[in-house]
Write a structure and sequence with these properties.
The chain has about 150 residues and is mostly beta strands. Helices cover about 15% and strands about 35% of the residues.
């Protein structure tokens, strides 16, 4: 894995929304759920979990797209409709930035893959950790500690 450096900048496809990451990533992941497949138009979504305090929009505003539920808030550029990041209710202390929105996503290697139960058979990857759904809450702290050592 290529090492990342801070700060990291990124934005949507059209450039109307820009952001900056100023804190180390907590982990990288891909999600194979059918919802992510439909929202990306691909086999999975790729994300970088970033502490909420280390993520800031630097240009533009986002709108909620995808699901309009009470728990997940998928943030999109209103102009080009790019899925930029996801935040959560209640606040989980981090946001999931779509890795492909980074100006340089070349360092991103999936550490965790989730929802392998819904994966397209040809799309599974060699992530260090795989889960049929999401990891249990008890598994997150050890995963975060392991990722921090990479």
């Amino acid at each position: 894995m290529t090492k990342w450096t801070l700060p990291m900048d990124g934005g949507c496809r059209c450039g109307e929304v820009r952001f900056r990451i100023s804190a180390p990533p907590m982990f990288t992941a891909i999600c194979h759920c059918t919802g992510c497949q439909k929202m990306t138009g691909g086999a999975y979504s790729t994300s970088v979990a970033v502490p909420r305090g280390g993520f800031a929009l630097t240009k533009g505003e986002t709108v909620i797209g995808g699901l309009h539920g009470e728990r997940l808030h998928h943030q999109h550029c209103d102009r080009c409709k790019s899925w930029v990041y996801t935040d959560f209710e209640p606040d989980m202390g981090f946001v999931n930035v779509r890795a492909t929105m980074l100006d340089d996503p070349s360092w991103v290697t999936p550490f965790v893959q989730s929802y392998t139960s819904e994966a397209l058979p040809w799309a599974l990857v060699a992530a260090q950790h795989s889960y049929e759904q999401f990891p249990s809450m008890e598994e997150y702290q050890p995963l975060l500690a392991e990722f921090a050592k990479l």
